[in-house]
Design a protein that fits this description.
Layout: E1 10-13, E2 19-23, E3 28-34, E4 37-38, E5 60-61, E6 83-86, E7 91-96, H1 99-102, E8 109-117, E9 121-130, E10 136-142, E11 145-147, E12 155-157, E13 164-166, E14 172-174, E15 181-182, E16 187-191, E17 198-201, E18 206-212, E19 216-221, H2 223-228, E20 241-255, E21 260-270
Antiparallel strand pairs: 1-2, 2-3, 3-4, 5-10, 6-7, 7-8, 8-9, 9-21, 10-20, 11-20, 12-15, 12-17, 13-14, 13-16, 16-19, 17-18, 18-21, 19-20
The protein binds 6-O-phosphono-beta-D-tagatofuranose (TA6).
6-O-phosphono-beta-D-tagatofuranose is lined by residues 53, 66, 73-74, 143, 167, 188, 218, 220, 245.
């Protein structure tokens, strides 16, 4: 990663062979190794800096999703340095409002990102507290880049019966596809109200992806054509990940003064010998 000025990553070993690495820049999870392999994709060409987020890992999207607001694309949280706090079983990062945040979003808040590796799983939790005297609304997402052997063999199971908004086509409403999500070009979808476990397979491996607090799921891969124009992706880098994002996009969270919201994504490594059929 081209990141000479990045704060030194924090490391934490969990039970078994589970271990994580995260940066205080963006409270960004860079690596999750579990059950013998790396589970996240991180672009070797990732850069960072003023307004530039790290490509890969788990960017924290807050307080706006994409261009759905007046602030920086996908919010400022992924391009600011958070305060790191190490605990025996988790890494935590905190962000409080400051001049740079109030310039874009005039609210007093405290946000915390907690990363807790387990033997076969990882819990990523974002908590936001309203520290202001008036209510505010925000959107959020954990923009997780899951490593896959080859995107052409990757499938996302569990959304077959859900209609979606096609962000690759101006947000057009689409009916349920009755099939697992496959990646044979640009895929950029917002699935509203998906409160169930999803499974991601790539022909060899399987990961279960659950969410708490987040109502929506975003599925994204840029496809070859868009990826070719992304300077922070290696050549053919798009083949090595699918983003499955726990998100709260379509119905922003509203917090009254003093109220707290938590959204989490839980990733679980499942044995490929389970009864779940790999490949669709
Ligand atoms: O979450 C999907 C998405 O909003 C896509 O539209 C895609 O552009 C992606 O995020 C990456 O956005 P970024 O700003 O990190 O290049």
């Amino acid at each position: 990663m081209n990141a000479p000025n990045l704060p030194a990553p924090q490391h934490l070993n969990g039970p078994g062979d589970s271990r994580i690495q995260a940066s205080a820049f963006g409270a960004h999870l860079l690596s999750w190794h579990c059950r013998g392999r790396e589970r996240l994709y991180l672009s070797p060409n990732a850069g960072f800096g003023a307004g530039k987020a790290i490509r890969g890992g788990v960017p924290v999207i807050f307080p706006q999703f994409a261009e759905r607001g007046d602030g920086p694309r996908h919010g400022f949280a992924r391009t600011l340095t958070w305060e790191a706090e190490r605990q025996p079983q988790r890494l935590s990062f905190r962000l409080r409002d400051r001049e740079e945040t109030r310039r874009h979003w005039p609210h007093r808040f405290e946000a915390e990102l907690d990363l807790e590796p387990g033997e076969d799983r990882l819990r990523i939790a974002l908590t936001v507290r309203n520290a202001d005297r008036a209510a505010f609304e925000f959107s959020a997402a954990l923009h997780t880049y899951l490593a896959v052997a080859d995107v052409a063999a990757a499938l996302v199971h569990g959304l077959e019966d859900r209609p979606y908004l096609d962000s690759a086509d101006g947000g057009a409403a689409r009916p349920a596809s009755d099939a697992p999500v496959r990646f044979d070009g640009e895929v950029d979808r917002i699935y509203p109200d998906t409160r169930r476990p999803l499974r991601i397979t790539d022909g060899e491996h399987m990961l279960r992806c659950e969410a708490e607090g987040f109502a929506d799921t975003v599925v994204w891969n840029p496809g070859a054509e868009l990826a070719a124009g992304m300077a922070d992706l290696e050549p053919d880098g798009h083949r090595r990940f699918v983003c499955v994002e726990a998100a709260q996009v379509l119905q922003p969270v509203r917090l009254e003064p003093g109220q707290v919201w938590t959204g989490a994504q839980i990733l679980v490594v499942e044995s490929s010998s389970s009864q779940y059929r790999i490949g669709g």
